[in-house]
Write a structure and sequence with these properties.
The chain has one domain. The chain has ten helices and two strands. The radius of gyration is 16 Å and the shape is globular. This is DUF5683 domain-containing protein. Keywords: Membrane, Transmembrane, Transmembrane helix.
């Protein structure tokens, strides 16, 4: 991955839409940024993050608007893929697979975050979805390699 593409990816990780701005896609970047703020505010995500970092997982679960927060993983990972694609990365026609599977796994982690206990700990709507990033990326890369080997 070139330095330019990596930079766009990192800025998209920082905030959806920033990678698009760097690529000169201002309308698309603005749409992603507005959607990010809308979902963030409607889901109470900043308050939930703060509570999670303070270990107040039960309160974080109570304050989370899951119907809004469920949109966030797809927006987040689509924004990353789009920024990388527009920067010249992802020449492989199935380069989107790691992003898609990661968004799926994080969404599943979010679905179960209010009641799934791991090692005796309830992780809640911030920590559990973050843990689901790793198997999502691994699964997506594995499926992409399998498909590329078949084709």
């Amino acid at each position: 991955m070139s330095k330019n593409i990596f930079e766009k990816l990192i800025w998209s990780i920082a905030l959806p839409g920033f990678g698009q701005y760097l690529n000169g896609k201002y309308f698309k970047g603005t749409v992603f940024l507005v959607l990010e703020f809308l979902i963030n505010i409607q889901s109470n995500f900043n308050q939930v993050i703060l509570m999670s970092f303070h270990g107040e997982i039960s309160d974080a679960i109570k304050h989370t608007n899951y119907q809004w927060l469920m949109f966030y993983p797809c927006l987040y990972f689509f924004s990353m893929w789009d920024a990388v694609k527009d920067a010249g990365g992802g020449k492989d026609p199935i380069s989107f697979l790691p992003y898609v599977f990661t968004a799926f796994f994080v969404t599943v982690g979010l679905i179960f975050s209010s009641n799934l206990v791991i090692f005796g700990v309830l992780l809640g709507p911030v920590w559990l979805p973050m843990l689901f990033v790793f198997p999502g990326v691994a699964f997506g890369i594995t499926i992409k390699k399998i498909i590329n080997n078949i084709l």
